[in-house]
Design a protein that fits this description.
By secondary structure, the chain is mainly alpha-helical. The chain has seven helices and no strands. The chain starts with a helix and ends with a helix.
């Protein structure tokens, strides 16, 4: 008995049972709904007959109303049956959903158990501690690499001397090409005494010119 209950075919039939029950109920519900519409049409026809014969043939009108009452009773029973079937379908669907949800939760629990395996909180703590240590080591290595210079610093005095030598070399090349010293350079390079002598000579020349002009003027006045 237990073997057939847990067997493959029996298990499949048990899983399909709710679906089959819902299908059967829906077929019966469809039939009752069609019967309900038919009874409503019959009632409308009997009421129409009663109105048409109420003045000319009361017996026929009375019979039509009687049949309408019978259809009303049958319609009420049919409506109650429809309500019962709809409630049963809803109950079976809810139960089936609950069953499938529970099975899914069991499968999820089994999957989580398989994933965790022999994992413990001690393993998790040890792993996190190892990660923190490796992170600190990475930071220390990075700081060490960025703080140590790869080459020796440049001597600023030596750099300035090289710059002055380069400027002098360029100046010498310009002097060789032009054949003389540039005006701006020659003026700035003349000694102060030489500049003073030039200025002195220029002033003496001006005084001689003035005396010569005076002598010429005196000779003209004498004549």
């Amino acid at each position: 008995m237990w073997g057939s209950w847990f067997g493959g075919n029996s298990a499949q039939r048990r899983r399909d049972a709710p679906k089959k029950a819902i299908l059967d109920l829906r077929q019966q519900l469809d039939m009752l709904q069609k019967r309900e519409r038919h009874l409503e049409n019959q009632m409308a026809n009997e009421e129409k007959k009663a109105k048409e014969t109420v003045n000319s043939n009361k017996t026929a009108a009375r019979a039509a109303l009687k049949r309408k009452k019978q259809h009303e009773q049958t319609l009420e029973q049919t409506s109650n049956q429809i309500s019962m079937l709809e409630q049963q379908i809803y109950s079976i669907e809810s139960a089936n959903i609950n069953q499938e949800t529970l099975a899914a939760m069991k499968n999820a629990g089994a999957a989580m158990k398989a994933i965790h395996g022999k994992m413990t909180m001690e393993d998790v703590d040890a792993t996190m501690e190892n990660l923190r240590e490796q992170d600190e080591l990475t930071k220390e290595i990075g700081n060490a690499i960025t703080s140590m210079p790869i080459s020796e610093p440049v001597d600023e005095d030596e750099l300035e001397a090289d710059l002055q030598a380069l400027e002098q070399e360029n100046l010498n090349e310009r002097m060789l090409k032009t054949g003389n010293v540039p005006v701006s350079d020659s003026v700035t390079k003349l000694p102060a005494a030489a500049n003073g002598e030039l200025k002195g000579k220029s002033k003496a020349t001006e005084e001689l010119d003035e005396e010569e002009e005076l002598r010429k003027l005196q000779a003209e006045m004498a004549m």
